[in-house]
Each structure stands twice: as C-alpha cells, then as structure tokens.
Inverse folding.
C-alpha cells in the first residue's frame, strides 16, 4: 500500500513551537510526530510513502535520512514544493507516485492509532473511488462537514459551513483510487502544477453520492494548536 503525508504547512497556530521546527517534526513526548506515522505505516504493511515539504524542508529531509538508519522496510520519497499547492494540488501533482490503484492521503499534523488496513477493507467493500474517514464533533464550526445516507455514502459535503448541518467531520485521512484523475482531470490548471487545488472546495463537492465515509473508532488529535498539542502529550503519557 502507498500513502501521501501532507506535511508542507507552516504550522502558524503552533508558534513558537514551529519557529525553528516544521510542524511534522514537533516532538510528542520526545518523539517527532512524523515518526509516529512512519512507524505506524511500517507496522501495517505499507511499501511506499511520499511526504511533501516546503517550510523548513531541509530539516525534514535530514530527519528522514536519520530514520533510514533504522533499516526500515518502507521507501520514503520527498517532494519539495516551491509554493504550497493545496491539499489536492499535491496529490494531483504526484500521480506517478500513486500509479494504478489506491493511495492513502494523510494530514501530517494528526496523531492517531488508526487501523488503516480496516479502513482500506471498508473502501474496497464499498467500491468507491474515494473514501473519507470521519469523527463525531459536537462543535463542528470551522470543519469540513458531511451528511451520509444509510449506506454510508456521502450525500452532502461542505467545507467550513457558517451553519453546520451535521456533527460528522472529516478526520484528515482519506483513500483515493487513481481512476479519479480521469474523472476530474483539471486540465486548465495542470500547467501551474495544480496550484491551490483543494479537496474540501474543489474535489469532494463534485463527488456527492459517489464517496463513502468510514467512522473512526480510535483516538485522533489534530495537532493544529497549542492546546491540542498539550492534549496529545497528556494522551500518550497515560
């Protein structure tokens, strides 16, 4: 299996922690966040992972070099973006890495013990080109919100609606199949490396009724703020 970890952001809400450290390398109880993901991917049988970089990219590259000294079994690829392409822009710009088949897309500022293998079984069972994962949130303001039918198909999705219509929010982890690139080619912005192409605004709204959604039964923390970071530290000390 393959995965793309989106890790190029500035982490502005985590300052001063990210003044000299990229968000994906922020230590959680002394262990870089990226290491949690790489260790999880290896444990669950992934063969290749691609990590996009931008802010403090050389520090990410240096860390990956040190990670390889562990003689791990996964191939780690990095791609530097001169400009942040957007969540979907990164994916559309790396279609060769994805190849023919499924690929996980993971927000690199998450901490989770998700069973990715079970998620993939759900994706295959539902025979969709794209499957979102979601969690329940009683305060979904500022989140990507979805509505599902009885068969777990996404019938409505809106990114950060002013008035949320559901407590089901996108978790930051999804699976897509390479066939989606033929359905949604975006030829008009290909020459600009799919700059500013975003899943929440440009992809998922076009696939209503064609996407499935998988409910997570695990811990998941979006480490986007100092409070969330402290919560993650407390969680892993238990």
């Amino acid at each position: 299996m393959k995965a793309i970890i989106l890790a190029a952001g500035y982490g502005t809400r985590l300052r001063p922690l990210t003044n000299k450290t990229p968000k994906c390398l922020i230590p959680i109880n002394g262990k870089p966040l990226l290491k949690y993901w790489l260790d999880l991917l290896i444990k669950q049988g992934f063969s290749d992972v691609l990590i996009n970089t931008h802010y403090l990219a050389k520090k990410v590259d240096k860390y990956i070099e040190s990670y390889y000294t562990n003689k791990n079994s996964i191939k780690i690829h990095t791609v530097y973006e001169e400009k942040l392409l957007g969540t979907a822009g990164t994916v559309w710009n790396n279609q060769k890495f994805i190849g023919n088949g499924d690929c996980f897309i993971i927000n690199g500022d998450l901490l989770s013990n998700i069973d990715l293998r079970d998620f993939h079984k759900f994706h295959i069972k539902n025979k969709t080109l794209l499957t979102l994962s979601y969690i329940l949130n009683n305060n979904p303001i500022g989140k990507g919100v979805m509505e599902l039918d009885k068969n777990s198909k996404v019938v409505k999705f809106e990114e950060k609606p002013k008035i949320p219509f559901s407590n089901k929010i996108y978790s930051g982890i999804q699976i897509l199949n390479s066939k989606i690139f033929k359905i949604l080619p975006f030829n008009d912005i290909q020459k600009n490396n799919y700059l500013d192409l975003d899943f929440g605004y440009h992809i998922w709204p076009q696939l209503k009724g064609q996407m499935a959604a998988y409910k997570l039964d695990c811990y998941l923390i979006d480490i986007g703020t100092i409070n969330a970071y402290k919560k993650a530290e407390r969680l892993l000390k238990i």
